[in-house]
Amino acid sequence: MSEEYRAKVFKSGNSLALRLPKALGLKEGMEMTVREEHGRYMFEPADLAPRKIDLTGIVGSMPWLKPLTREERDFDDSPRDWHLLDGSSPDNDRP
């Protein structure tokens, strides 16, 4: 059986806030999703943002991978046939 708590709504700046009991185990700064369904309010922890993968621990285990030099990072522009976009031919000179 679940516990029942009373909470108080109060004004915080231009918003309303709900003071929740410490017994719920929530931590300061947690983000919550609040949903209203037929006059009842439900809240649950919001999904966490995806974390970035830290590869620093495995960098040395792949000696064949080396950082690119500045020269290797510069790529030449490949030629593009821009005239194909507007349907004109490269032989037709337009003013």
TrEMBL record:
Highest classification ranks of the organism: Bacteria, Pseudomonadati, Pseudomonadota, Alphaproteobacteria, Sphingomonadales
Domain SpoVT-AbrB span(s) in chain numbering: 10-51
GO molecular function per UniProt: DNA binding
Protein name: SpoVT-AbrB domain-containing protein
Coiled coil: none
Domain of life where this protein originates: Bacteria
SUPFAM superfamilies: AbrB/MazE/MraZ-like
SMART domains per record: SpoVT_AbrB
Region (Disordered): 73-95
Originating species: Sphingobium ummariense RL-3
UniProt biased composition (Basic and acidic residues): 73-84
